[in-house]
């Protein structure tokens, strides 16, 4: 997976940020900071990110295609334009039953100050 930060102050077309590669998951870093990061991913059909846990919430936006997001054993199908927040410390995996592209946004700071909905 390739990691580098994108050019700032430039117009980005999300679906054009990253290409598909046969039989692969590809990532491209848009922003990477100690406080969090934004990453574009492309998944070829049949590919997946294995089950893991992250200490931070992860906001997933599907920008092309259809993704299967499994959070704590519960499967959700997201279509282009749909989003989900994967809660911190929850087991999760991402599967490509069809090829798709997504943006992942993780913010690592502020957990001690803010609770969603308050």
From TrEMBL:
<dbReference type="InterPro" id="IPR014710">
    <property type="entry name" value="RmlC-like_jellyroll"/>
</dbReference>
<protein>
    <submittedName>
        <fullName>Cupin domain-containing protein</fullName>
    </submittedName>
</protein>
<dbReference type="InterPro" id="IPR011051">
    <property type="entry name" value="RmlC_Cupin_sf"/>
</dbReference>
